[in-house]
Amino acid sequence: MVLDYGGVLTKPVSSSAWPEADGIAPESFSAVLKAWLSHSSPEGAPIHRLETGDLSIQEFEVFLDDAEPNVADAQGVESARDRTTVHDPSRRSRSMTEQRVAIVTGAARGIGAGIARRLAQDGLAVAVLDLDESASNLVAEEIVSDGGRAIGIGADVSDEQAVADAVARVVAELGPPTVLINNAGIIRDNLLFKMTTDDWDAVMNVHLRGAFLMTRAVQAHMTQAKWGRIVSLSSTSALGNRGQANYAAAKAGMQGFTKTLAIELGKYGITANAVAPGFIETEMTQATARRVGVSFEDLKESAAKVIAVARTGRPEDIAHAASFFVSEGAGFVSGQVLYVAGGPQG
Ligand SMILES: NC(=O)c1ccc[n+]([C@@H]2O[C@H](COP(=O)([O-])OP(=O)(O)OC[C@H]3O[C@@H](n4cnc5c(N)ncnc54)[C@H](O)[C@@H]3O)[C@@H](O)[C@H]2O)c1
User: Fold this and answer.
1) How would DSSP label each residue in 260-318?
2) Closest CA to 246 of 202, 290, 279
3) Regarding the domain with residue range 101-340, which homologous superfamily does it belong to in the CATH classification?
4) Most Cβ neighbours (<10 Å): which of 41, 72, 91, 143?
5) Beta-strand runs (E) in 159-251
6) Ligand 1 pocket test: which of 104, 105, 128, 130 has the largest number of ligand atoms within 8 Å of its C-beta?
7) Could you tell me the residue ranges of all domains in the chain?
8) pLDDT for 205-262, tens place per residue?
9) Phi-psi label, residue 75: left if phi above 0, alpha if psi -120 to 50, beta otherwise
10) Considering only CA atoms, which residue is closest to atom 9 of ligand 1?
């Protein structure tokens, strides 16, 4: 049994806010931990792993949540829980966690940039991930100059190695990510008889393969933290849209993916939801205007005519919905598809 670890524990643990949240005086904290762990971990394994750097603070906190503390018989140390006026796990987990870390894919512009900015305003650290690294860096710099914490990362979400490298960079520079926004997307519109195999594959790769690779990589950190939020971008096109057989299939796929994640990961405190936007003013809809040969203003005007609130959407409209799904209070909302389209859909 490891008994002499007071000097080791206080150093890493002092960076966490949770002794204070639990009402434990800093000077007696290592003794309290020692009492807990000497009972719940006879080999003292977590202490040793913490000491050798094999266990992160987050993993250690998860271990403590799992441990069954029984300090009554422990070396004269009074019970940590007795000294904590109210032991409220949700309060503790919020204050224990210094700052949630989010990855937003396709965040160099448009909806993704809107979501990245909004999550930063909500107090999260944000990895702005996009194929376009220099544009990602600009969004991250803007967040930082507004007082937030962010990094830009250049990565292709459909490239397995690039995804692994990107997530490792987020862990190293911001901390383990527990919020993922699968937003990266492309369109390759054409009527079915003219749609090439490349058009089909490209759209499937970015939306579905990309969301799969990103989610598989990030869920490891979420399950470890026993908390996570996954928000994936679907679209009203999931309901069917002329010229978008590939995109409609991918966006409907995002909904099935989301519901399955909700079922598989729910028991780890992870929610998965989808936002399905209608017409949003971004480079993507500007490209559509160019393709069909009308001005963007004319396209917006004709789109607004069939939208109940009589206007087209903006990235902030989608960011607001994403912010709700990510919020602490939305832990009982999972597997949902929220159409954000200025009127009824779905
Ligand atoms: N704009 C709309 O009206 C609308 C409607 C419904 C759904 N959506 C969805 O919202 C999301 C964002 O759309 P947007 O309008 O902001 O598009 P956008 O074209 O303005 O931005 C998409 C971003 O994704 C990035 N990206 C593309 N492929 C990538 C890859 N392989 N890896 C990493 N990044 C990649 C692009 O570089 C770009 O910065 C997409 O999933 C889109 O399908 C948009």
Assistant:
1) HHHHHHGGGTEEEEEEEE-SB-SHHHHHHHHHHT--HHHHHHHHHHTSTTSS-B-HHHH
2) 202
3) NAD(P)-binding Rossmann-like Domain (3.40.50.720)
4) 143
5) 179-182, 228-233
6) 130
7) 6-96, 101-340
8) 999 999 999 999 999 999 999 999 999 999 999 999 999 999 999 999 999 999 999 9
9) left
10) 233
Take atom 42 of ligand 1 and give the residue whose Cα is closest.
185
Tokens of 113: 């940039």
Strand-strand pairing, 337-340 and 270-277: parallel
Q: What is the pTM of this model?
A: 0.77
Ligand 1: nearest atom to the Cα of 281: 1
Q: Verify whether residue 5 is a known catalytic residue.
A: no
Q: Which residues of the chain have pLDDT under 50?
A: 1-16, 18, 42, 68-97
Query: Which of 252, 319, 310 has its CA nearest to residue 110?
Result: 319
Residue 40 is encoded by which pair of tokens?
């719940």
pLDDT of residue 98: 76
Integer Cα distance of 298 and 300 in angstroms: 5
283 Cα nearest atom in ligand 1: 20
Query: Quick one: tokens of 139?
Result: 């969004």
Chain-centroid distance of CA 137 in Å reads 19
Cα 218 to ligand 1 centre (Å):
20
Atom of ligand 1 nearest to the CA of 182: 41
Residues having CB within 6 Å of any atom of ligand 1: 105-106, 108-112, 130-132, 156-158, 183-186, 206, 210, 233, 235, 277, 279-280, 282-285
Distance CA 273, CA 258 (A): 6
Backbone angles phi, psi at 196, to 5 degrees: -85, 160
340: amino acid identity, one letter: V
pLDDT of residue 33: 62
Are 158 and 205 within 8 A, CB to CB?
yes
65 DSSP 8-state letter = H
Q: Which of 134, 139, 282 to mutate to test the pocket of ligand 1 (most atoms within 8 A of CB)?
A: 282
